[in-house]
Amino acid sequence: MRNERHDEPLSGEELELFLQYLHRFARHDVDLFALLEVGDPADPRYVTLTSEPAAGVDRSAYRRP
């Protein structure tokens, strides 16, 4: 599934769906970690999903949507 609307922000409904899918993905598909490269290939963003906070980062720094 590809969506070519990369140049516009998510609508409120799309953001809600994204967060639902993210929670589901984290619960069922992320065992120890998942490393992702997303966004524009010329200016990518790197995403790390793990079961532990990043080293040196207090749990309180994370926000739960």
Structure write-up:
The chain contains one helix and two strands, in the order αββ. It is an alpha+beta fold and 65 residues long. It has a two-stranded antiparallel sheet. It starts with 11 loop residues before the first helix and ends in a 15-residue tail after the last strand.
Give the helices and strands as they follow along the chain: HEE
Q: Report the span from N to C terminus.
A: 25 Å
Query: What helical percentage do the residues reach?
Result: 25-40%
Unreliable parts? none
Query: What Rg do the Cα atoms give?
Result: 14 Å
The fraction of residues in strands falls at 15-25%
Q: Quickly count the helices.
A: 1
Structural class: alpha+beta
Q: What is the strand tally?
A: 2
- Let me know the largest β-sheet: 2 strands, antiparallel
Write out the strand line-up for the largest beta sheet, numbering strands in chain order. Answer: 1-2
* Overall pLDDT confidence: 90
Give the overall silhouette: globular
Distinctive features:
65 residues; two-stranded antiparallel ribbon; globular
Short overview:
26% of the residues lie in helices and 18% in strands.
